[in-house]
Protein backbone atom coordinates (compact mmCIF):
# COMPACT_ATOMS: atom_id res chain seq x y z
CA UNK A 1 0.00 0.00 0.00
CA UNK A 2 1.32 3.44 -0.89
CA UNK A 3 1.60 6.25 1.67
CA UNK A 4 -0.23 9.56 1.29
CA UNK A 5 1.43 12.55 -0.36
CA UNK A 6 1.31 14.77 2.75
CA UNK A 7 3.23 12.22 4.81
CA UNK A 8 5.78 11.75 2.01
CA UNK A 9 6.40 15.51 1.97
CA UNK A 10 6.85 15.58 5.77
CA UNK A 11 9.17 12.59 5.66
CA UNK A 12 11.36 14.08 2.96
CA UNK A 13 11.66 17.36 4.87
CA UNK A 14 12.68 15.50 8.03
CA UNK A 15 15.25 13.38 6.21
CA UNK A 16 16.84 16.37 4.48
CA UNK A 17 17.14 18.11 7.85
CA UNK A 18 18.61 15.05 9.56
CA UNK A 19 21.10 14.21 6.80
CA UNK A 20 22.01 17.80 5.98
CA UNK A 21 21.50 16.99 2.31
CA UNK A 22 18.95 19.34 0.65
CA UNK A 23 19.04 17.11 -2.45
CA UNK A 24 18.17 13.87 -0.61
CA UNK A 25 15.36 11.89 -2.24
CA UNK A 26 13.10 9.02 -1.24
CA UNK A 27 11.44 6.32 -3.32
CA UNK A 28 9.33 3.22 -2.86
CA UNK A 29 7.48 4.55 0.18
CA UNK A 30 5.24 1.68 1.29
CA UNK A 31 2.97 1.06 4.26
CA UNK A 32 4.15 -1.99 6.23
CA UNK A 33 1.83 -4.39 8.09
CA UNK A 34 1.56 -4.23 11.86
CA UNK A 35 -0.64 -3.24 14.78
CA UNK A 36 1.52 -1.04 17.05
CA UNK A 37 1.70 2.35 15.40
CA UNK A 38 2.30 2.96 11.70
CA UNK A 39 5.36 1.73 9.82
CA UNK A 40 6.64 2.55 6.35
CA UNK A 41 9.52 1.22 4.29
CA UNK A 42 11.40 3.42 1.83
CA UNK A 43 14.68 3.98 -0.01
CA UNK A 44 16.72 7.05 0.93
CA UNK A 45 19.30 8.44 -1.49
CA UNK A 46 21.82 11.00 -0.19
CA UNK A 47 24.87 12.66 -1.73
CA UNK A 48 28.30 13.51 -0.35
CA UNK A 49 30.31 16.66 -1.09
CA UNK A 50 31.53 15.21 -4.39
CA UNK A 51 28.00 14.39 -5.47
CA UNK A 52 28.40 10.62 -5.08
CA UNK A 53 25.11 8.97 -4.16
CA UNK A 54 24.42 6.50 -1.32
CA UNK A 55 21.19 4.53 -1.10
CA UNK A 56 19.78 3.02 2.11
CA UNK A 57 16.72 0.88 2.73
CA UNK A 58 15.05 2.23 5.88
CA UNK A 59 11.92 1.85 7.99
CA UNK A 60 10.12 4.58 9.92
CA UNK A 61 7.67 3.84 12.72
CA UNK A 62 5.33 6.46 14.14
CA UNK A 63 3.28 6.43 17.30
CA UNK A 64 -0.42 5.70 16.68
CA UNK A 65 -2.33 8.79 15.60
CA UNK A 66 -4.45 10.42 18.28
CA UNK A 67 -3.00 8.32 21.12
CA UNK A 68 -0.84 9.61 23.98
CA UNK A 69 2.73 8.35 23.38
CA UNK A 70 2.97 6.35 26.61
CA UNK A 71 3.19 2.63 27.34
CA UNK A 72 3.05 0.51 24.20
CA UNK A 73 2.52 3.67 22.10
CA UNK A 74 5.84 5.19 23.22
CA UNK A 75 7.80 4.44 20.06
CA UNK A 76 10.73 6.64 21.10
CA UNK A 77 11.22 4.42 24.15
CA UNK A 78 11.23 1.36 21.89
CA UNK A 79 14.01 2.92 19.82
CA UNK A 80 16.03 3.80 22.92
CA UNK A 81 15.70 0.20 24.12
CA UNK A 82 16.94 -1.16 20.79
CA UNK A 83 19.81 1.32 20.85
CA UNK A 84 20.73 0.22 24.39
CA UNK A 85 21.35 -3.29 23.03
CA UNK A 86 23.85 -2.21 20.38
CA UNK A 87 27.12 -4.07 20.86
CA UNK A 88 25.46 -7.03 22.60
CA UNK A 89 24.69 -10.47 21.16
CA UNK A 90 21.02 -9.47 20.73
CA UNK A 91 20.35 -8.51 17.08
CA UNK A 92 18.10 -5.48 16.63
CA UNK A 93 17.43 -3.17 13.68
CA UNK A 94 20.10 -0.42 13.66
CA UNK A 95 18.61 2.82 15.00
CA UNK A 96 19.42 5.88 12.89
CA UNK A 97 17.23 8.64 14.29
CA UNK A 98 14.72 9.11 17.10
CA UNK A 99 12.08 11.83 17.11
CA UNK A 100 10.93 12.45 20.66
CA UNK A 101 8.69 15.41 19.90
CA UNK A 102 5.84 16.27 17.55
CA UNK A 103 7.52 18.79 15.26
CA UNK A 104 7.88 16.65 12.14
CA UNK A 105 4.78 14.43 12.13
CA UNK A 106 2.67 15.55 15.09
CA UNK A 107 3.80 12.50 17.10
CA UNK A 108 7.03 10.71 18.06
CA UNK A 109 8.82 8.42 15.60
CA UNK A 110 12.03 6.52 14.90
CA UNK A 111 13.94 5.37 11.83
CA UNK A 112 15.90 2.11 11.62
CA UNK A 113 17.77 0.25 8.94
CA UNK A 114 15.75 -2.38 7.09
CA UNK A 115 16.67 -5.96 8.03
CA UNK A 116 15.90 -8.75 5.57
CA UNK A 117 14.36 -11.84 7.14
CA UNK A 118 11.33 -14.07 7.31
CA UNK A 119 8.80 -14.53 10.11
CA UNK A 120 8.49 -18.21 10.80
CA UNK A 121 4.94 -18.04 12.19
CA UNK A 122 3.36 -16.19 9.30
CA UNK A 123 4.05 -18.65 6.50
CA UNK A 124 5.93 -16.08 4.43
CA UNK A 125 7.67 -19.00 2.77
CA UNK A 126 7.93 -22.77 3.18
CA UNK A 127 10.37 -23.91 5.86
CA UNK A 128 11.60 -27.49 5.88
CA UNK A 129 11.57 -29.42 9.19
CA UNK A 130 15.36 -29.00 9.47
CA UNK A 131 15.09 -25.26 8.81
CA UNK A 132 12.40 -24.90 11.49
CA UNK A 133 14.51 -26.74 14.03
CA UNK A 134 17.58 -24.65 13.17
CA UNK A 135 15.50 -21.49 13.49
CA UNK A 136 14.22 -22.68 16.89
CA UNK A 137 17.78 -23.16 18.14
CA UNK A 138 18.68 -19.67 16.94
CA UNK A 139 15.63 -18.15 18.62
CA UNK A 140 16.46 -19.85 21.93
CA UNK A 141 20.06 -18.59 21.67
CA UNK A 142 18.67 -15.10 21.23
CA UNK A 143 16.49 -15.50 24.32
CA UNK A 144 19.50 -16.59 26.34
CA UNK A 145 21.58 -13.71 24.95
CA UNK A 146 18.99 -11.11 25.95
CA UNK A 147 18.60 -12.57 29.43
CA UNK A 148 22.38 -12.49 29.91
CA UNK A 149 22.62 -8.75 29.17
CA UNK A 150 23.37 -6.78 32.38
CA UNK A 151 20.16 -4.94 33.18
CA UNK A 152 21.26 -2.55 35.92
CA UNK A 153 23.22 -0.21 33.57
CA UNK A 154 20.12 -0.02 31.33
CA UNK A 155 17.69 0.83 34.11
CA UNK A 156 17.30 4.46 33.06
CA UNK A 157 16.08 3.38 29.61
CA UNK A 158 14.16 0.20 30.47
CA UNK A 159 12.59 1.37 33.72
CA UNK A 160 12.25 -0.09 37.19
CA UNK A 161 11.74 -3.87 37.59
CA UNK A 162 8.17 -5.14 37.27
CA UNK A 163 7.14 -7.80 39.80
CA UNK A 164 5.12 -10.91 39.02
CA UNK A 165 2.34 -9.54 41.21
CA UNK A 166 2.21 -6.46 38.99
CA UNK A 167 2.19 -8.69 35.91
CA UNK A 168 -0.80 -10.64 37.21
CA UNK A 169 -2.60 -7.43 38.16
CA UNK A 170 -2.18 -6.14 34.60
CA UNK A 171 -3.95 -9.24 33.33
CA UNK A 172 -6.63 -8.93 35.99
CA UNK A 173 -7.33 -5.37 34.83
CA UNK A 174 -8.08 -6.69 31.33
CA UNK A 175 -10.24 -9.56 32.56
CA UNK A 176 -12.25 -7.71 35.19
CA UNK A 177 -14.49 -5.90 32.70
CA UNK A 178 -18.23 -6.49 32.33
CA UNK A 179 -18.14 -5.98 28.55
CA UNK A 180 -16.07 -9.13 27.85
CA UNK A 181 -17.72 -12.11 26.21
CA UNK A 182 -18.17 -14.60 29.13
CA UNK A 183 -17.23 -17.49 26.83
CA UNK A 184 -13.70 -16.05 26.51
CA UNK A 185 -13.04 -15.96 30.27
CA UNK A 186 -14.19 -19.44 31.30
CA UNK A 187 -11.67 -20.87 33.79
CA UNK A 188 -9.65 -17.67 34.13
CA UNK A 189 -10.46 -17.12 37.83
CA UNK A 190 -9.38 -20.65 38.73
CA UNK A 191 -6.09 -20.24 36.88
CA UNK A 192 -5.52 -16.89 38.58
CA UNK A 193 -5.85 -18.47 42.01
CA UNK A 194 -3.47 -21.30 41.11
CA UNK A 195 -0.89 -18.83 39.78
CA UNK A 196 -1.06 -16.75 42.95
CA UNK A 197 -0.76 -19.85 45.16
CA UNK A 198 2.32 -21.18 43.35
CA UNK A 199 4.08 -17.95 42.33
CA UNK A 200 7.91 -18.24 42.21
CA UNK A 201 9.36 -16.27 45.10
CA UNK A 202 12.70 -15.12 43.68
CA UNK A 203 12.53 -15.12 39.88
CA UNK A 204 15.62 -14.25 37.88
CA UNK A 205 15.49 -10.56 36.85
CA UNK A 206 16.77 -9.22 33.57
CA UNK A 207 15.89 -7.59 30.27
CA UNK A 208 12.57 -8.97 29.02
CA UNK A 209 11.23 -8.47 25.49
CA UNK A 210 7.67 -9.31 26.48
CA UNK A 211 6.52 -10.69 23.11
CA UNK A 212 9.51 -12.78 22.07
CA UNK A 213 7.86 -15.38 19.86
CA UNK A 214 8.14 -16.54 16.27
CA UNK A 215 6.43 -13.60 14.55
CA UNK A 216 8.79 -11.06 16.15
CA UNK A 217 11.98 -12.74 14.91
CA UNK A 218 13.39 -11.97 11.47
CA UNK A 219 15.18 -15.16 10.43
CA UNK A 220 17.50 -15.76 7.50
CA UNK A 221 19.83 -18.72 6.84
CA UNK A 222 19.08 -20.30 10.20
CA UNK A 223 19.97 -17.19 12.21
CA UNK A 224 17.98 -14.46 13.92
CA UNK A 225 18.83 -11.30 12.02
CA UNK A 226 16.75 -9.00 14.20
CA UNK A 227 14.28 -9.03 17.07
CA UNK A 228 11.51 -6.51 16.42
CA UNK A 229 8.49 -4.99 18.22
CA UNK A 230 9.92 -3.90 21.58
CA UNK A 231 6.83 -2.09 22.88
CA UNK A 232 6.40 -4.52 25.81
CA UNK A 233 10.06 -4.55 26.86
CA UNK A 234 10.82 -4.14 30.56
CA UNK A 235 12.99 -5.32 33.42
CA UNK A 236 11.30 -8.33 34.94
CA UNK A 237 11.35 -12.09 35.38
CA UNK A 238 13.26 -13.37 32.34
CA UNK A 239 11.29 -16.63 32.19
CA UNK A 240 8.31 -14.58 31.02
CA UNK A 241 9.96 -14.67 27.59
CA UNK A 242 10.62 -18.42 27.72
CA UNK A 243 7.06 -19.16 28.84
CA UNK A 244 5.74 -16.98 26.02
CA UNK A 245 7.83 -18.82 23.41
CA UNK A 246 6.62 -22.15 24.82
CA UNK A 247 3.01 -20.95 24.59
CA UNK A 248 3.36 -20.30 20.87
CA UNK A 249 5.05 -23.70 20.44
CA UNK A 250 2.40 -25.74 22.26
CA UNK A 251 -0.39 -27.14 20.05
CA UNK A 252 -2.34 -28.13 23.19
CA UNK A 253 -2.85 -24.45 24.02
CA UNK A 254 -4.84 -23.76 20.87
CA UNK A 255 -8.09 -24.78 19.24
CA UNK A 256 -6.52 -23.97 15.87
CA UNK A 257 -3.29 -25.96 16.07
CA UNK A 258 -2.03 -24.43 12.80
CA UNK A 259 -1.06 -21.37 14.87
CA UNK A 260 2.01 -23.39 15.92
CA UNK A 261 4.69 -23.99 13.25
CA UNK A 262 4.47 -27.66 12.29
CA UNK A 263 8.02 -28.82 13.05
CA UNK A 264 9.00 -26.60 15.96
CA UNK A 265 10.53 -28.50 18.92
CA UNK A 266 8.20 -29.10 21.85
CA UNK A 267 8.03 -26.63 24.75
CA UNK A 268 9.96 -29.14 26.88
CA UNK A 269 12.71 -29.35 24.25
CA UNK A 270 12.88 -25.55 23.94
CA UNK A 271 13.19 -25.23 27.73
CA UNK A 272 16.06 -27.75 27.71
CA UNK A 273 17.86 -25.81 24.95
CA UNK A 274 17.46 -22.65 27.00
CA UNK A 275 18.77 -24.34 30.15
CA UNK A 276 21.94 -25.31 28.31
CA UNK A 277 22.61 -21.69 27.32
CA UNK A 278 22.11 -19.75 30.54
CA UNK A 279 24.20 -19.60 33.68
CA UNK A 280 21.32 -19.72 36.19
CA UNK A 281 19.07 -22.54 37.34
CA UNK A 282 15.82 -23.13 35.45
CA UNK A 283 13.61 -25.69 37.20
CA UNK A 284 10.80 -27.69 35.62
CA UNK A 285 8.38 -26.16 38.14
CA UNK A 286 9.38 -22.64 37.12
CA UNK A 287 9.00 -23.44 33.42
CA UNK A 288 5.52 -24.83 34.03
CA UNK A 289 4.51 -21.77 36.06
CA UNK A 290 5.66 -19.32 33.41
CA UNK A 291 4.00 -21.37 30.68
CA UNK A 292 0.75 -21.27 32.67
CA UNK A 293 1.14 -17.56 33.31
CA UNK A 294 1.68 -16.98 29.57
CA UNK A 295 -1.64 -18.73 28.91
CA UNK A 296 -3.33 -16.49 31.47
CA UNK A 297 -1.68 -13.40 30.02
CA UNK A 298 -2.52 -14.14 26.39
CA UNK A 299 -5.99 -15.32 27.33
CA UNK A 300 -6.58 -11.93 28.97
CA UNK A 301 -5.16 -10.07 25.96
CA UNK A 302 -7.35 -12.15 23.64
CA UNK A 303 -10.57 -11.58 25.59
CA UNK A 304 -9.87 -7.85 25.82
CA UNK A 305 -8.90 -7.33 22.16
CA UNK A 306 -11.85 -9.38 20.93
CA UNK A 307 -14.13 -7.12 22.99
CA UNK A 308 -12.52 -4.00 21.46
CA UNK A 309 -12.93 -5.43 17.96
CA UNK A 310 -16.60 -6.32 18.44
CA UNK A 311 -17.40 -2.90 19.90
CA UNK A 312 -15.69 -1.15 16.98
CA UNK A 313 -12.99 0.38 19.17
CA UNK A 314 -10.07 -1.37 17.43
CA UNK A 315 -11.16 -3.32 14.38
CA UNK A 316 -9.09 -6.46 13.81
CA UNK A 317 -10.99 -9.57 12.61
CA UNK A 318 -8.05 -11.87 13.43
CA UNK A 319 -9.17 -11.77 17.08
CA UNK A 320 -12.35 -13.64 16.11
CA UNK A 321 -10.22 -16.65 15.15
CA UNK A 322 -7.78 -16.32 18.05
CA UNK A 323 -10.68 -15.81 20.45
CA UNK A 324 -11.82 -19.38 19.87
CA UNK A 325 -8.80 -20.46 21.95
CA UNK A 326 -9.31 -18.09 24.89
CA UNK A 327 -10.91 -20.61 27.24
CA UNK A 328 -8.47 -23.27 26.07
CA UNK A 329 -5.53 -21.06 27.08
CA UNK A 330 -6.86 -20.87 30.64
CA UNK A 331 -7.55 -24.61 30.73
CA UNK A 332 -4.06 -25.44 29.49
CA UNK A 333 -2.57 -23.24 32.19
CA UNK A 334 -4.47 -25.18 34.85
CA UNK A 335 -3.24 -28.45 33.37
CA UNK A 336 0.37 -27.29 33.53
CA UNK A 337 0.04 -26.38 37.21
CA UNK A 338 -1.58 -29.70 38.07
Give an overview in words:
With 338 residues, this protein is of the alpha+beta class. The protein folds into 2 domains: 5-113, Phosphorylase Kinase, domain 1, CATH 3.30.200.20; 120-337, Aminoglycoside 3'-phosphotransferase, Chain: A, domain 2. It contains 11 helices and 9 strands. The chain has helices spanning 5-19, 75-84, 129-147, 155-158, 164-175, 188-197, 239-247, 267-275, 284-310, 318-322, 326-337; strands spanning 25-32, 38-47, 53-62, 95-99, 109-113, 205-208, 217-220, 223-227, 234-237. It has a 5-stranded antiparallel sheet, with helices on both faces. Strands 6-9 form a two-stranded antiparallel sheet. Strand 2 and strand 3 form a beta hairpin. The longest helix has 27 residues, at 284-310. The protein is globular and about 70 Å long. The N and C termini lie far apart (48 Å). The model has no long low-confidence stretch (mean pLDDT 94).
In the CATH hierarchy, the third-tier topology of the largest domain is known as Aminoglycoside 3'-phosphotransferase, Chain: A, domain 2
Helix content: 25-40%
Largest sheet: 5 strands, antiparallel
Radius of gyration (Å)? 21 Å
Cα distance, first to last residue?
A: 48 Å
Mean pLDDT: 94
> From the coordinates shown, what is the CATH architecture of the largest domain?
Alpha-Beta Complex
Shape: globular
- What top-tier CATH class of the largest domain fits best? Alpha Beta
**Beta-strand content bin:** 15-25%
Amino acid sequence: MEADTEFETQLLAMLRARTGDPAATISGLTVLPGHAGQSYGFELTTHDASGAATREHLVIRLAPAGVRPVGTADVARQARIMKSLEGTAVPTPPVKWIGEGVEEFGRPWFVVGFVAGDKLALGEREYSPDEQRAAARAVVRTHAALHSVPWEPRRAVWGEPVTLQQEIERCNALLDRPTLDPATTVGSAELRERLLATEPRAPRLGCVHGDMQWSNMLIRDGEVRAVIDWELAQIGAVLIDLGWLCLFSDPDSWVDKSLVPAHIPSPEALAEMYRERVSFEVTDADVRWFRAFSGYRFGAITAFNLMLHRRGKRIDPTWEDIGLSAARLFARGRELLG
